[in-house]
Amino acid sequence: MNTSFISTPIDTSFMNTSFLLFALLNPAFALLAAPLYMALIRKVKAQAQGRKGPGLFQAYYDLRKLMQKEVIYSPVSSGIMRFTPYLNLAALLVCSLFVPLVFVPEPAGGFGNVIVFLYLLALERFFTALCGLDAGSAFGGMGSSRSMSLAAVIEPTMVVAFAALAFVLKSLNLHEMFALTAGSLLPVSPTLVLVSISLFIILIVETGRLPVDNPATHLELTMINEAMVLEQSGKNLALLELSHALKQLLLMGVLINTILPVGLSTEADAGKIAVSALFFLLKAGALSVVIGLFESSLAKMRLFRLPAFYMMAFFFSALTILIEVFA
Amino acid sequence: MNSLLEALMYGAFAALFSGTVLPLLYRSKNARKASFGLSFISSVLLLGFAGTILYTGKGVLFPAISFLPGLDFTLGADRLSAGFVLLIAAVVPGVSIYSLEYTEHAKSEAGKDLQAALTNLFILAMLLVVLAGNMVVFLIFWEIMSLSSLLLVLHDYSSEENKKAGFFYFVMTNLSTAFLFLGFISLFRLTGSAELGLGSVEPGALTLPFLCLFTGFGIKAGLVPFHKWLPYAHPAAPSGVSALMSGVMLKVAVYGFLRFLLAVPSPELWWGVLVLTVGSLSALFGVIYALKESDIKRLLAYSSIENIGIIFIGIGLYVIFKAEGLPALALMSLTGACFHAFNHALFKSLLFLCAGSVVHATGTRNIEAFGGLVKSMPVTSALFLIGSVSIAALPPANGFAGELLLYQAFFQASALNDPLLTVLLVIALSGFALAGALAAALFVKLFGITCLALPRSEESRLAKEVPKLMLVGAAVPAAFCILAGLFSKQLLSLAGLDVEYPDLLLLGLLLGLIYAALFLAVRAKDKNGKGEGPARISETWGCGAPTLAPSMEYSSAGFSEPLVMILKSIYRTRIVHTPKYLDGQESLFKNGDVEIRLLRFFEEYLYIPPARAIESISKRVARLQNGKLDSYVLYAFLAVIALILATGVLV
Pick from A130, A155, B13, B205: CA 20 to 30 A from residue A84's CA? Predict the structure, then answer.
């Protein structure tokens, strides 16, 4: 136990074929699959409430519609509103190089570093919050204020949860971590079940779902994320929605690779990639059903009750670390 | 090689010295310009000096000048001091260009001359502290550094606020020096030499020197609970000097502490635990108080406390890993601490310069009165955004680079043998993460409220972009911020620090490329699609009100309200009701006041009680002074006897 894991030499060149193939396939796959699960969760929620709900491709239709609409800017707004949609999507596409979905490549160029991953998500949040303030609307300001406040409170939990992952899987790199879990039917260590509870709560919080935020509302008292993008329109809104969907998919990917890594391959072989991708689509579908049912069974929590909810996630991550340390 | 280094160093000395003397001799605008020009030149020379030492890894020792029997005036530089010289050299260019213009707006002619002279003296003193070869030289320049900055804090001595700030600073900085004296004297007793190195001293004997030096340097660096002078003194100084004080002077204290710590061959574990705890508390309290602040410069000063806390977290980690026999992780933590010190110097000086520009343009330091500056001051706003992104530790800017190293060290806490220590590190890690996320919220607030949306006051509406030199001055650290972030891996390996570190240049390039590709892809669709042309401009929806008024926007206090509510127990606000009644039975309510005020915890519970105690003791001692010559002679006689007896007993 007395060895730190930095001493393992990591190939710093990113020019290996496995990684290049991954760099092409993984972001494309993530980008294409992301809207599907937005729609699926909506569908599950509708069914749970006795409604028929939208079709599975509704999110794609919405994005296409938005892409064709003109953009409307407030005269008050500045460049922030104009460049943030592109920047956010770019940041999340870079993020999608960090979470292996189609197969686990050989680690390269520092991609997969957990901390860089977390802070790229912070980059997206920072600029979205600035967008909320940009148009001078009180709704936007409220959304930014709440979003940044809740993000600050969840941050220790996020970091400790990923630290717990690093403790259990003995690496700082998501690629290396998931290379270790890849293919096994059950989680490689029982403590990963505990981390997964934290990761699930983080997924709920980061994607603005009930009981933290209500994605289906336009009521000022309950909205956080929707309030920040209230002044966005057209293509810009489409890009922001797409980034949001992508973020959800990537966090789902981290959770799935941790708790249910079955089917994930470590080889860049066409057949195996197809199998991995298919498995991922199915597993993400199942997770979406869980999220949909989870959302349907809960009411929105009061804003100042949320830190207690976060503490639950923190508890499970901390517990994992305690078990790892004392076992 | 040595002669080149000597030439560079003496050149820098000469430039800074003449920069100090010139504006005092020839009291003219040109002399002031020349003075700031000289400090700029000195920084270029220093850049070469520090770069060479860091690259070759070979230190240099300048010929000693003997000035007291048995004591030489020695100067020298090794890699640690070169790192901090580089830090000075990176901050000074921006500040000197900025001050060329900024100083000219001071009230009196004499004040302008003094500012130019003292700024140079201040830089020179900080440089010499870092290069000092022994304790005596260190302390001499430490005092010059403190006094020159004190005079700069008092530049506007007619204002009551500045007088208070100056007094507070004076007391605290002297307290710091007193602890340093104690620490150095006890070290001298152990080693018998005034050298800064330690030789072979057994670690058990170092407890007293460690505590004294940690307190002394901690006061100067602004660690909680000795931080209260910082939010008073930094806003009071001219903005260029605030940048130097926050950016460089606090780091000189960090340097002093590191100089001692690195000389100890095997530091004890509890030192690390202490430093880590104090660092974590400083990081948290600094940012938590900053959230509540509405004075832009004071907010930045509080945020400096946070960042100093982060640096000390790194130092604490270094000691812990070193004591536990994990040299690779110790090196990573130490590199993280030093690199964060360097990065903080850059982005904090940038932010102070931008704040100076904003205050210059609007005439107020109150954040609630700003707003919409992105329209009237676009360049300053852009630079401000770079600073905010940097300090919020967003990749690939430089604020992220140092914190990344610390996170990596934290994440490997499982390598420690002692489970309790790992748990301690995890607790510190969650504090560190919380401080980082709060800082991001803080700077969304600061940038958003200052630069975006509608102007909230007449001053802000009429604000004009500041003169070119001030923009260039702020642009220099901004450029350094971006470069130091992108090239962090390359910089670290050039300085010979090979730690595991992801390549941020690759990340930055990739971000840029994807951004450009997305932009072009969406734009290309514009043309061959329906040809909608440029976007439409339309009012923000104001909930049915005919026009959007600034009073409808979110305010700075409103923005931080949720966090203030969540952290209520830390702020310790006190609600005071003073109802008035119509009748004696207190049943018929007439009117009354309710006041919510922030409890100034440290001042009320930590500073005021000892101050009162000292006051009452001095009152008693004052009775000795009765104006009679014969009783004074008696005191002197008794004192001599006591001294003789004391030396007889002790020696």
Answer: A155
